[in-house]
Design a protein that fits this description.
Blueprint lengths: L1 E5 H8 L3 H16 L8 E3 L8 E5 L4 E7 L3 E9 H9 L1 E5 L6 E5 L34 H6 L7 H5 L6 H5 L4 H11 L20 H4 L2 E3 L3 H9 L11 H8 L16 H15 L5 E5 L2 H14 L4 H5 L1 E5 H13 L7 H14 L7 H12 L7 H6 L14 H18 L4 H5 L12
Parallel strand pairs: 1-5, 9-10
Antiparallel strand pairs: 1-8, 2-3, 3-4, 4-5, 6-7
Helix pairs in contact: 2-9, 10-11, 11-12, 15-18
Length: about 425
Amino acid sequence: MDFLIADTFTGSLARLTGDEQKAAKTTAFDLQVNPASPGLSFHKLDKAKDKNFWSVRVSSDIRLIVHKTAGSLLLCYVDHHDKAYDWAERRKLETHPKTGAAQLVEIRETVKEVIVPVYVQKELPAPRKAPKPPLFADKSDEELLGYGVPAEWLKDVRSATEDTLLALTDHLPAEAAEALLELATGGRPRVPEPVLADVSPFEHPDAQRRFRVMTNVEELQRALDFPWEKWTVFLHPEQRQWVERDYTGPARISGSAGTGKTIVALHRAVHLARANPEARVLLTTFSDTLANALHTKLKRLVGSEPRLAERIDVHSLNAIGLRLYKSHRGPVSLASREAVRELIGEGSNAVAGHKFSLHFLLTEWEQVVDAWQLETWESYRNVARLGRKTRLPEAQRPILWSIFEKVRAGLTERKLTTHAGVNGGRKVRRVPVEK
């Protein structure tokens, strides 16, 4: 029997108190080890439309909702008695008729309109507003079903307007809600590929964003210990395609903050390590702080596979550059930012007649001169100052270079090297790598 966990379970678990969470986790572990244990108290939910929903007693008031069939046991929800029962009575687990993905669908008849009472009556002239047109009136049932819209919600979707769409999407599966929002803003949503008839509906990419098979107690414990870290269990299908794709060369994934690029990088590293049992995988980032955070998340992701984790290295680019530099060129003394600032201040004072601030000089050094490892006046004169907001006439560059020359001379005299110098700056440079 497959033992699965739903994202609705981890979400509801996080809302319980600490003691309630401990008791719920204990019951979940008992269910995984032996769902037929006589110590477990199952209760049939008579009012639930889905007859495979059962409650499992956790304590005097806490109930765990499971969906039980001959082939699977799914942890769905946990809450206080009445709230847990109410949740189960308003939902059903079904396989979507078009996409073949497993979905927890909110039953249409149980959704009640919320009426806000008016305590002060005042007659106002009723403004005449033209009714807003439905957003999806021209979409066929076949197209809407293809986006994962449950069949019983088709009528509501077809009549949705700008004013009602957001409220409607709260009741729909994530893939359907995302597709409708993209359609409403002029986009073209991705149409999920239907699964084969002999494939489990839980294996569909859209289903894997909310359901996951737990293969052992350690994996379940990791999922329950970090319910807010859903990326360790539920990978979005749009992310999964980039994680598991075969590339013929370098690839770049771009996106704004919060779109999951770091999540993709973590899962990609794990995927490569699993696919290549003899290989070591290096995951790098720009700062030591982020590298440490990634290493912590990696341990959560593969905590039950210590040998796999040993083959994945997580370091900042500066740390990797420093290690390679030491192994091929010997010891190195790094200049601190304070030391560089001091040298820039001395160079600035030595060159009279300019009006450049210390802050401007420091950022110009870090983002242009040091970043590109510019060593001559000609290279500084000709470099494209990409990303620099301050325009710099060519007549001013000789003054700046006279300051930066003194900074470079000061670093050489003190036998100091910057991180950019260790890493080779932005130049293309061949670095021998240990095999």
